[in-house]
Amino acid sequence: MAHDQSESYREMSQMLYETQRIHGNLIQLLTLYKFGNDLYPFHPETQELAEFIHLAVSHVAPLLTSRSIALETEIEEDCYWDFDSDLINGIVVHAMNNAVHYTKDRLRLVAGMVDNALEIRIEDNGRGFPQQMLDDGVAAMRGVNFNTGSTGLGLYFAAVVAQMHGNRQENGSIRLENGSLLGGGCFILRLP
After folding, report:
1. How far does the chain reach from its first CA to its final CA, in angstroms?
2. Which backbone phi and psi does 176 adopt, to 5 degrees?
3. Mean pLDDT, residues 2-15 taken together
């Protein structure tokens, strides 16, 4: 009986992951459509960083719990920044969902000021990004891998949204790294 419950729990966890992934992809596609047709009301407003991050984490918490993944957060207190909270929430939640898929059992979310910009990092303790993906950079977003189901849509969406956020003649950006504090991959969103 316990084995059946355990198997059912794993299946339910996988369905939750896939449902959140599909939902996120549909929202990203519709938002990109709105960008392309000047229908999205882009409106950055001052956000309290800790409150924003806690809200984003709450969207992913059920998935983390279902997969027994520990989340460590490091958030700069009393930090306020101007950004479109819906768009940035979409990036952070999607990056965390993606990290859930590749981590062994731990995630780390770090958010705060780095070199006069807001930086949000999502790290995992998985195998890291393939070297080819790191080498290709933006070009990695253009390909489709039918074996893994990867379309690059999440990275493309994140790059477009980051670029929309500008300040002091600098635009936002994303990057991928390996060798994070947890030893795996690291997604970094930087907003000037």
Report:
1. 54
2. -120, 140
3. 67
